[in-house]
Specification:
The complex is a heterodimer of chains A (154) and B (112). Chain A has 154 residues and is of the alpha+beta class. Chain A contains four helices and eight strands; from the N terminus they run ββααββββββαα. Helix content of chain A is 27%, strand content 44%. In chain B, a hairpin with an 8-residue loop joins strand 1 and strand 2 (68-70). The chains are: A alpha+beta (154), B mainly alpha (112). Chain B: This is DNA-binding transcriptional ArsR family regulator.
């Protein structure tokens, strides 16, 4: 399996890449179809996404809500800016903790790579401070809740 | 997780990142660190203080010199945090592998 990479670029970007053994079309659908998103965008065991509203068209809004079933939860809202089936999605999103974080501009591309697909996510934050905060606290709260609850990893 | 806010905030400055990059090559004095920048020594010292308070660099006393070097523990704490983030995202994408495999199967079924 190919490794995921996560790195910062310049002052305001965060870049994530991952290769998948599936065509770009499948990746695109898994990122825009609520039923599919609810199957994988979950974080650690015990977390689920009971609300997944996704209007995948330019100007369309989305809202994802996560819960651990024990009273903890948070949500993300966003808008689609561009959708080029099946290669590119551009959207903005913010996390509500419960106060909204500054907008994260996200460009996701799915490029055919042999039999599979190379996914590249390019996040752009408004400034260095926001990126630093996102890496240190925004992701800590949001993604930690979603993905990296320490106890879930040990 | 202690002090991660301070550490990432300390990194949110190009001069301080350049200082860390320089120190990754080895110990350096304030003068040596100031040289590549068009900045006064007090300004550099201020950046060094921020990095030191964040636990990312340490100083050693050598006569009148105070050479700085990277603080392994502080750097390691950030690295561990980013590692967790990576692991977390990887978990989602491992699940996505499964979802994609199911999509493929369905598609092939439809094409038959």
């Amino acid at each position: 399996m190919s490794k995921m990479t996560l790195k910062t670029e310049g002052d305001t970007h965060v870049i994530v890449t991952r290769r998948f053994d599936a065509p770009p079309e499948a990746l695109y659908r898994a990122h825009t179809d609520p039923k599919l998103l609810q199957k994988w965008l979950l974080g650690p065991e015990g977390w689920s996404m009971p609300v997944c509203i996704n209007d995948a068209k330019p100007g369309g809004k989305f809202r994802y809500e996560w819960t651990n079933g024990k009273g903890a939860g948070f949500h993300i809202t966003g808008e689609y800016l561009e959708l080029n089936p099946f290669n590119r999605i551009v959207h903005v999103e913010r996390m509500h903790l419960p106060d909204p974080t500054p907008d994260n501009h996200v460009e996701t591309t799915f490029d055919q790579d042999g039999e599979g697909t190379l996914m590249t996510i390019r996040m752009t934050l408004p400034d260095e401070k926001t990126r630093a905060t996102m890496l240190a606290t925004g992701m800590e709260h949001g993604m930690e809740a979603s993905y990296v609850r320490l106890e879930a990893m040990i | 997780m202690n002090g991660l806010d301070t550490k990432f905030s300390a990194l949110a400055d190009p001069t301080r990142r350049a200082i860390l990059a320089r120190l990754s090559l080895g110990e350096a004095t304030v003068n040596e660190l100031a040289r590549p920048f068009e900045m006064s020594q007090p300004a550099i010292s201020q950046h060094l203080k921020v990095l030191e308070d964040a636990g990312l660099i340490m100083r050693r006393v050598e006569g009148t010199k105070r050479p700085r070097r990277l603080a392994k523990e502080g750097i390691e704490a950030m690295n561990q945090w980013l590692g967790m983030l990576r692991t977390a995202l990887e978990k989602n994408y491992d699940r996505l592998d499964g979802v994609l495999a199911a999509i493929d199967t369905k598609k092939r079924g439809e094409m038959r």
